[in-house]
Design a protein that fits this description.
Length: 347
């Protein structure tokens, strides 16, 4: 049986005190992150430097003692490894060359060549697995195909994922060809992360909520299921956390019934009492504090942490935010969140 708290929860154990980590825990709200990022030059140099990426992954572990570390990288490294140009515009976000036609699709490189670009990431995972304290779990990750495709089609983040929806409707074969390539690349990428030492994998489908029920099944659930099947075939039963962000209750139920899913991450919009009743007998639940509490703190934070923990106390639970921590968050509020979680006892 697993010894690390996160792995116990992922095995389905209900723990006295839920383990805790935080999405984007290595990020701009931390002065030490900003200092390392300045030394590395820019965000992508940080992602591709095993030395600096290891350092920023470890910073929140040193400062707060979280129960898990998440590899420092980005979901957009896969499009770049497939051959798209990728750059970040200061204060605005990512920009990519786009996939709109069959010709664009044919220009993508061979799937196996992604490892040339991504090998520094595997090196970071390997360094982390040696450097982390014995009780901290190392989480690797990738974007889900739909979410990654939305960026590859639009060339940037979009409020409604309009360009991806348009391509899906007007040129389904190009859209599906792209999805297949992302499935292939993502499965290979995750398998290498596991071989390098990742103990758990998280698959982020940040834009799952914009899909209609049929499209959700076809383009969020099925591709994710296929990636998990391939990863488990190659690596055995590594725990998988899925985050179909913004999906409705039926969508979450279909993920809970899927083969190979150990845990579902909940956005802050998800009713935890409903999730406890309908999902927690099948999977571990992770979440789901509104990240705005990390900016505002105070008794509202403490009450919200306790409400979530109360509601999810009768099954496996990993405490987390409902989405990534924002750059304007106060590290003292992160400490208050952890202290509040760790002061609890379910029994
Ligand atoms: O330092 C900086 O200025 C860059 C900010 C930043 C950071 C810290 C970006 C750019 N990515 C990251 C790291 C990151 N991204 C991690 C590292 C591990 C962690 O500490 O959590 C992870 C897991 C991600 C995943 C990611 N990137 C997602 C999925 C999760 C989510 O937030 O919904 C998405 C959608 C991205 C794309 C991306 N990367 C960065 C930005 C600003 C964005 C969003 C772009 C947009 O839609 O406008």
């Amino acid at each position: 049986m697993a010894q690390k708290k996160i792995l116990k929860a992922l095995e389905g154990q209900t723990l006295d005190v839920p383990p805790v980590w935080m999405m984007r825990q290595a990020g701009r709200y931390l002065p030490e992150y900003r200092a390392t990022r300045a030394k590395a030059g820019d965000f992508l140099s940080l992602c591709y430097s095993p030395e600096w990426a290891t350092e920023v992954t470890l910073q929140p572990i040193r400062r707060f003692g979280f129960d898990a570390a998440i590899l420092f990288a980005d979901i957009l490294l896969i499009p770049q490894a497939l051959g798209l140009d990728l750059w970040f515009v200061q204060g605005e976000g990512p920009r990519l060359s786009t996939i709109e036609t069959n010709k664009d699709l044919q220009k993508l490189g061979k799937i196996e060549s992604i490892h040339t670009t991504l090998s520094p990431v595997y090196e970071t995972v390997s360094r982390l697995s040696k450097a982390l304290p014995d009780d901290v779990t190392l989480i690797g990750f990738a974007g889900a195909p739909w979410t990654v495709a939305t960026y590859m089609i639009a060339g940037r983040g979009t409020p409604d994922q309009g360009p991806a929806h348009n391509l899906m409707q007007t040129n389904t074969s190009v859209f599906e060809g792209l999805m297949e390539r992302i499935v292939d690349a993502t499965a290979l990428y995750l398998i290498e992360q596991i071989k390098a030492g990742a103990e758990v994998i998280k698959i982020f489908d940040s834009w799952a909520g914009s899909l209609s029920p049929d499209d959700f099944n076809k383009y969020s659930k099925q591709p994710t299921e296929e990636i998990i099947r391939r990863v488990h075939k190659e690596c055995g039963s590594v725990p998988i956390i899925c985050f179909p962000k913004g999906a409705n209750q039926a969508g979450y139920e279909s993920f809970a019934n899927m083969n190979g899913v150990s845990c579902l991450a909940l956005g802050q919009d998800m009713d935890t009492d409903w999730a406890a009743k309908n999902l927690q007998s099948k999977v571990c639940l992770q979440g789901n504090l509104d990240p705005s509490h990390m900016v505002n703190g105070g008794t509202a934070l403490v009450d919200a942490v306790n409400n979530i923990c109360d509601s999810l106390a009768n099954g496996p639970h990993i405490f987390n935010l409902g989405h990534g921590i924002t750059p304007d968050a106060d590290p003292n509020n992160v400490q208050l969140m952890i202290d509040t979680v760790r002061a609890r006892s379910n029994r």
